[in-house]
Amino acid sequence: MICFYLVDGPDGQQMKQEPSVAETESLRPGSMFTWIPQRKAQRLRKVTASGLANPNLGALVTPVPLTLAASVYVSAISKEKRMGASILRLFFHDCFVNGCDGSILLDDTSSFTGEKNAGPNRNSVRGFNVIDDIKTAVEKVCPGVVSCADILATAARDSVNILGGPCWNVKLGRRDSTTASQAAANNSIPPPTSSLSNLISKFKAVGLSTKDMVTLSGAHTIGQARCTNFRTRIYNETNIDSSFAKTRQGSCPRTSGSGDNNLAPLDLQTPTYFDNDYFKNLIEKKGLLHSDQQLFNGGSTDSIVKKYSNNPSSFNSHFITSMINMGDISPLTGSSGQIRKNCRKVN
Ligand code: HEM
């Protein structure tokens, strides 16, 4: 199987170009975790998305299937910016449950219980149709080569970048699981009621440090949460700015069962822009979730929060490192797993 790159021709028209051996190798099923090279970057097609925070998405060298993926994805995010947040979260919930293996994408059937209905996911995670659309487009040009797990990893990166955050090379070569575990999803993904020590230990359990935990929580600079997940905080907690609590109470009734699904932005200033406001909010006691405010509550992580609130470039560069660390959790490689044809079911 040879996949081609699209490069800009002399007249600005796109031309096909055969990749070098190394580049082909990086996409061959079973070839593991080769960095996609960055050369030829300037000549590569740029996927433009007018009106979005960072239109130069295609600036990194990306093999055609994933360049195509990016263009499908840009159109999804331009329809609904929150989708970027939802896909980033999907990647987190995939990686924390037995590794980044696309297990969260498997549908339940009468004989199979997957992860979609686990507590942290049910009525909450979203974006499955977008992953399907990307997979369909990718399979058309390069069937059986790009795993659903890799599609999720690159889409998560693209989310951050499109919404104004940093960009990085995603390691490719993950394969897809043939199983999923609802029990592991319930157990491994930290709930918003977590204490600081619980957060630290859930991340440690998958090989991530306390610094990774704080840094990755900065993903809450984008996206929304449901009232049911922050009700207790805005009515009962004391380490919260009182006018912020009042504002949030306006659309999240005190009584459990009413307005449970009403949404509020995790970052009150710029919920569709990837920046360091999340950390500034924590310092002002305006974290929306109990678990958010735990990161700045007189404990060992206060200093990291302070640093990121003052230094956006330090947050951005650590975010890249931590996303790569998270993307490295227990990948399926070699002959383990498979390249699913349809992300929702095992081949
Ligand atoms: C540190 C532990 C974490 C906890 C306790 C936590 C919890 C939550 C909760 C409860 C929500 C709202 C869900 C809902 O109301 O339906 C949420 C949303 C979100 N989380 Fe986290 N999260 C954590 C870490 C992360 C990480 C590591 C990432 C990604 C790197 C992430 C990305 C997101 C995003 C982007 C959203 C918004 C999703 C959307 O708008 O659809 N979270 N999180």
TrEMBL record:
CDD domains: secretory_peroxidase. Disulfide bonds join C95-C100, C148-C343, C227-C252. GO terms for biological process: hydrogen peroxide catabolic process; response to oxidative stress. One of its GO terms (molecular function) is metal ion binding. Residues 245-261 have a biased composition (Polar residues). The active site is at H93 (proton acceptor). Ca(2+) 2 binds at T221, D267, T270, D275. It comes from Protea cynaroides. This is Peroxidase.
